[in-house]
From TrEMBL:
Name of the encoding gene: LOC107720790
Example GO BP: L-histidine metabolic process
Family (UniProt): Belongs to the PAL/histidase family.
Class of enzymatic activity (EC top level): lyase
The species this protein was found in: Sinocyclocheilus rhinocerous
Protein name: Histidine ammonia-lyase
Pathway: Amino-acid degradation; L-histidine degradation into L-glutamate; N-formimidoyl-L-glutamate from L-histidine: step 1/3
PROSITE patterns (UniProt xref): PAL_HISTIDASE (PS00488)
InterPro entries, per the entry: Aromatic_Lyase (IPR001106), Fumarase/histidase_N (IPR024083), L-Aspartase-like (IPR008948), Par3/HAL_N (IPR021922), Phe/His_NH3-lyase_AS (IPR022313)
EC numbers on record: 4.3.1.3
Domain Par3/HAL N-terminal: 5-79
Amino acid sequence: MPRFTVHVRDEWLTVPCKDATCSIKWLGFEALKRYIKNKPDNGGIQHIKDVHFGVKRCQGLGLLDNDDTIEDVLEDNDFVELGNITNMVYMFSVCREIDYISLDGNSLTSTDLVNLGKGLYKIKLTLEAEQKVVQSRELLDTIVKENKVVYGITTGFGKFARTVIPVSKLKELQENLLRSHSSGLGSPLSPERTRMLLALRINVLAKGLSGISLETLHRMIQAFNASCLSYVPEKGTVGASGDLAPLSHLALGLMGEGQMWSPKSGWADSKYVLEAHGLKPISLKPKEGLALINGTQMITSLGAEAVERAEAIAQQADIIAALTLEVLKGTTKAFDSESHRFCDRVQDAYTMRCCPQVHGIVNDTIEFVKKIINTEINSATDNPMVFAERGETISGGNFHGEYPAKALDYLAIGVHELASISERRIERLCNPSLSELPAFLVNEGGLNSGFMIAHCTAAALVSENKVLCHPSSIDSLSTSAATEDHVSMGGWAARKALRVVEHVEQVLAIELLAACQGIEFLRPLRTTTPLEKVYDLVRATVKPWIKDRFMAPDIEAVHRLLVDQKVWNIAGPYIEKYCMEYIPESRPSSPTAFALDPPPSPRKRVRLE
């Protein structure tokens, strides 16, 4: 029985067809029926028979006549799009022009890589990179033509490095490498993370030190630009010899085997996804399989996301702590060279008084880790390396992931402190003996529990982080019959660093909610201008807590504000202005005083006192 995949709004639906003589119109209505079946409001469609729509093929983008029969215009497993010209988003929406990032293997940054993952840019190579790739491939072709014995080109791999492979089987050798090494397990990487992984592998190959052919590299770029993304399980790498398992899965899909995803097709067999986008699978030449999988790109791409998100939440942690300081009527004099000169409060608890010291080392940690990740992003991590200008190949150890593994373990340990100290501030906000506010920040305590369990959630996340911060890079297990006898375990270092960062974001989201709730009990007093704007931002998303309600969506909504850096976007300009006017030698992103307005004179207090 033929089947078709139909795109309706943001969903992909499989529609079986018992009778291929049915019309395209029938196919559209069948897809609509499936679309509205599980929608509580029928997807906004009141009367399905009154809907008018158009249908087009995903491949070639050709419009189909609704009266044509399926067998005349479609083939089994075709992908089509459905658009409604009345009350649905019509398929001919204007696509914004997407800019390109030119890759040369030397200048990509972690920020660029994250933006590539988000689909904000497409990829192309610089002319210089293309020339280096061509020269590198020419040397490899010469090696094969002259029947030289070179590891990974005319020999087996790992323990089989001494096994010479006949020229007639060199293509099979590379294909077998990808198939056998595609042995990862676990959930697949998200499309965003798979885009990052593919983009980073392309960037490394663009250095012209791997022997990849320009044809194969161009096909990888075409797949990236079309968002044709392989199924890459998150588990299976030990981080030396590179991220072999995940990169093999990445390459396997490009070879037309295994599963692949794209916005147009959803998950399907790779060959069908590529075909739907008018793309051809890569055909491996000698050494190309090895060139596609030897490297630290899984560790480094996840690490790039972790360090970028860590940097963003660290900036916003300063702002959230400042808001809590205001709600608890803490003193800023601990941050002044003339501490307590005009203040009747001697000192606050460490969780408020020591914020600059605790937050400060987090910023320095992030800066250190980001430097290592950006170096790794532009490093040649293949083996053997192909040096066209010297006419030789060299086997080395650049594939070892110890650098990013150690750095990401350090990142997790560092950024965790933001959650650790935040959770203690949440306790102070919720505890009436410490805050002078209603217990758990809610009226009618007893009838209402307020932030009682939100604080427990924060405590649970901090406790989880204590385990996740145990370094994975201190472990090593010998693999490949003791040939690869020391490994980095960097894949787990990267994955758990991301988890720690996410937990930090969530704990700070709870603190931000609690601090804004505390302000409700201190009105009509007002805090500083930037903090009032942060309050307004939160209240535009989450209402004040009058009585108990379903809390998880509120936490998730504020977490999203932090991930999207909206809190920083609101308050950041004030911090930068303050730094320029009062601390000209400081960097805008470094921790400074927590009063986000210029320090008031002793005669004019603008804080909540």
